[in-house]
Design brief:
Length: 367
């Protein structure tokens, strides 16, 4: 009997959730210069125009924001050639992923994601009381056949990070279309394209066309990897019936005034986005080459980060490398929770940070 319980208890399943552990942001005591390479932030920082817009809004923080973030939706729509009515903005794309789970999943339902997928999917699926179904990847990449094989009559959502974090691998869009074609019409396909701006591949698409034409596809995006992680701005593009449902569930002022203004200025600053992508293209290639030159395996990445695998000997393990790098101010990301106990994820950093990590690892591996 509920009345007999000595204190409030969370709903069934809530205490089974393993809380998300963000990347470290501090170095051990005594380290003076810290290079944070653990959260895939933009080494070029925010757009200067976004900084200015955020400053300008400070004097008006007494006023509630527009609850529909209309001007931000219009700026996004203009940048991508979309109808603003099919966009919802959110407090980071994490929020919209949670809202999708909350709106489309009930206890007894299942939602599918891949073995090394971005961890928040599982958390939100469990929070909605549904059953998380993780499927095997092939060579650290999503496997369409494995995903389709895991779909049952209870499946309601398939989450696909394309490209995925922390692997950095992606599916060519022909594969995403094949996945969509194989799904029952009542299964929602969530294309999480958090790194779309960084991908430089002719066979890649974020999912705009599919989300604009199918009744069961949405695409989610974020400003976080482009210099506004602290502002918390994400968005979703999808069919009107899904927008309508989500709008009933989301908080009425979920995107704050600072985020709205910084976001508008940021997305209009095409030059900053281009500069960021170009910097990434150059240094991602350089870092991959250097790591391979050091004898380390890297998963081929199209994002703004690199998954680096360490040797089996304890002295040169990912944990040992993490300690060694941290003591020198280089903060990378442990990814044990993602199924990679002996790898580190490194965000592409400034030239100084990138060169510093390679130099430090060179010495570390010789030790
Ligand atoms: C970083 C990331 C997000 C979301 O980030 P927000 O800061 O909440 O917008 C979503 N998906 C993937 C795969 C990510 O790596």
């Amino acid at each position: 009997m509920k009345q007999d319980q000595p204190r409030p208890t969370p709903r069934a399943g809530i205490m089974d959730i393993e809380a998300y552990v963000p990347g470290k942001s501090t170095a051990p005591a005594g380290v003076t210069k810290v290079y944070k390479l653990s959260s895939n932030e933009n080494p070029l920082g925010p757009s200067p125009k976004a900084i200015e817009a955020a400053r300008d809004v400070a004097a008006k923080l007494d006023v509630y924001p527009d609850g529909t973030a209309r001007r931000l939706r219009e700026a996004i729509a203009e940048a991508h050639g979309l109808n603003p009515a099919n966009i919802i903005c959110s407090n980071g794309s994490d929020e919209i992923l949670g809202l999708l789970a909350q709106t489309y999943l009930a206890p007894g339902d299942e939602a599918v994601f891949t073995e090394h997928a971005f961890m928040v999917y599982k958390i939100y699926i469990q929070a909605a009381g549904a059953r998380p179904v993780a499927v095997k990847e092939t060579e650290e990449r999503a496997d369409v056949d494995a995903i389709l094989a895991a779909v049952t009559p209870a499946t309601r959502i398939v989450f696909l990070a394309n490209p995925n974090n922390p692997t950095g691998t992606y599916l060519p869009f022909s594969e995403v279309r094949r996945l969509h074609a194989g799904l029952p019409k009542n299964v929602l396909l969530v294309l999480d394209a958090a790194y779309a701006e960084y991908v430089r591949r002719n066979d890649y698409e974020a999912g705009i066309e599919l989300a604009g034409s199918a009744d069961n596809v949405v695409m989610t995006r974020t400003f976080s990897k482009l210099g506004l992680g602290g502002a918390r701005i994400g968005w979703m593009y999808g069919p009107a019936h899904i927008v309508d449902a989500i709008n009933r569930v989301r908080g009425p002022f979920n995107v704050n005034a600072t985020a709205i203004e910084a976001g508008i200025a940021s997305i209009r600053d095409r030059a900053h986005i281009e500069r960021s992508a170009l910097h990434n293209e150059t240094w991602l290639a350089w870092l991959s080459e250097q790591m391979i030159g050091l004898g380390l395996r890297v998963t081929p990445s199209v994002g703004n980060f690199l998954l680096i695998h360490f040797p089996d000997d304890k002295k040169h393990s990912a944990a040992a490398a993490d300690d060694y790098l941290s003591q020198r101010g280089y903060i990378l990301r442990r990814v044990t929770g993602y199924g990679f106990p002996n790898a580190l994820r490194m965000s592409v950093g400034t030239e100084e940070a990138n060169r510093g990590v390679v130099e430090a690892l060179t010495t570390f591996l010789k030790s």
